[in-house]
Write the structure tokens for this entry.
Amino acid sequence: MGTLTDTLDTLPHRLHRQALEHGADVALRHKHLGIWQVRTWEQLADEVQNLAAALQARGFSVGATLTIISRPTPRAIVAALAAQWLGGAASLLDPLDAPAGQIDLLGELQPDFVLAQGHEELLRLGAAQVTPRVLIYLDKRGLSDSGPFDQASDYAALIDSEVFAETIPQAQAQQTAFVFYRRGQHTTEKQRISHAELLQHGQQLVQREGLGRQDEALAARGFASGGQARYLLAPWLIAGLRLNFPENLATRDRDRRELGPTLVAGTRETYERLHGHALERLPPPGDNARRLVDWALAARPGLLRRFVGHWLVRRPLRDVLGFSRTHAPLVVGDALRPETQAFFESLGIKVRRWGDSTEWEVPSISPASVTNGRDERHSQRIWKEATT
Amino acid sequence: MTRTAATQLLELDNISLSFKGVKAITDISFRVAAGEICALIGPNGAGKSSLLNIISGVYQPQEGRIRFDNRERRRMRAHDVAVRGVARTFQNIALFKGMSVLDNVLTGRNLKRRSTWIEQALRLGRAAREDDSQREAAERVIAFLHLQPWRDALVGTLPYGLQKRVELARALAAEPRLLLLDEPMAGMNADEKQQMSRFIVDINRELGTTVLLIEHDIGVVMSISDHVVVLDYGRKIGDGSPEAVRQDPEVISAYLGTRH
């Protein structure tokens, strides 16, 4: 695993330190084939180094960007950390974004290094007429007759190949760690977040919420937004908590219920979806059982109501929603609607907002050259959303 | 695929079947090459399901011979056919509706178990050891067909399209070499049909399973099949590539209804 370095001001350095000091502890869990599969910090760091070596052998170097089009999986995180290990950045694109917009974006970016989830994402690259220097896929299903992508590499084969790997991360604090894009009507806006910024915000969260190695978080939507990178990925590497990935997007609420994470860093949509699910399960208005629920969830309950309501209503509802152990319920980005906020408060869950301190820029040069890290000086900052 | 050069997995020669003197199938012969998707099409009552029942051992033909994987059989029970590597789904869903999706898929693994029923009932010897491997195999099928969100749901509570997918999963769990699908898309909407088509193609391409399917949606048949066999009134009237069959005058006549 290498030697201990004093530097802890980048994400891969944090990973390196966790692997050296707590190598046997669980870093990631991913539900696969119905079972939570485990990666320790040491295994994770080895996988990151192996992929970094494979990327380096294919020309990835300081300042380059690895574009990742993947749903949240441990491998997508490994890929992001591998790019950062080599002093590069990761640009995360959500495969659930509308295909047309993403194809346009990919066409503009013309990325050199791409990691794609599978067939659907490769088709988007083809539609965008992107011909990356290095193309890696995670899932080979459906690729047997994908002629245009004959040169693509299988992730599993890459990390198995034995190549020399940099044992010390090459990243520096002020380098860009993540790049995010969003498309407006006429422009493509870009958000760059440095290691230093991520770790600063992550540290604030760890301290304010008292996070530690005993904590569990669920990465339901991965890191396809800056807020998730700040308040989930960075705290994970700083505090050494466990990061869990659901089996897939459709099972995320079930997996959350099974897991009972102590840290929930969700978006407004996450909480509203859960609120909706809870309302669907409640007895219809007018029913005696519903009256009991409404009685138990009333604001400022007395001692009796608090006690009875806890055991008969609030606790079962928290279990169903997967918040039975949550002590850090966070909403990242837009604030909750008042009715959703009130619902969670009635369950004893005080959702705290951590704003996505976003600086979105409109690149004044072509996005392709920006992502390749050759010129990042001429960007024009257009607006800034204040942190909470 | 060049079918003349391909290995034949299933060969039917001069198959005839009648019920109390009424001929359901008359002198049908065709080949299914290993690794292909073969569609069996024809109007209602053409004998498609009867032919599938013959292949799967439910019916015994009065005449003709069947060769599967270079082994000829004249009379064989459905169980023996399944042991040789043939699995099927049914036109009308035949699942255990009071059991979960996972348990239904696990029933498809029965032929893969080596332990006796006594060992299984008492969880002795091999039975306990087999449980993990059988569960893993079932989970792989569930993941392949994207059924994870409904793993623990009772099958009877699922919508029709999902039940069809569970039935496919159960058949696939037997790791068949030949998969017989009797109208896998019947009653589905356009999105469900597209999804099911994708799964069938994936089963064929990714797992290498040969597929023989009955389907009425000609658009689906033409888009996913390598080979099409057309039946009408219990006789074969067409056999070839989708393009060749599409242009066959006799097939057009039967399908457009000029003779019916």
About this structure: Residues 333 and 355 of chain A are 5 Å apart (CA to CA). Chain A has two domains: 11-193+359-384, 267-354. The interface with chain B takes residues 32-35, 141-142, 144-145, 247-248, 250-251, 254 of chain A (CB under 8 Å).
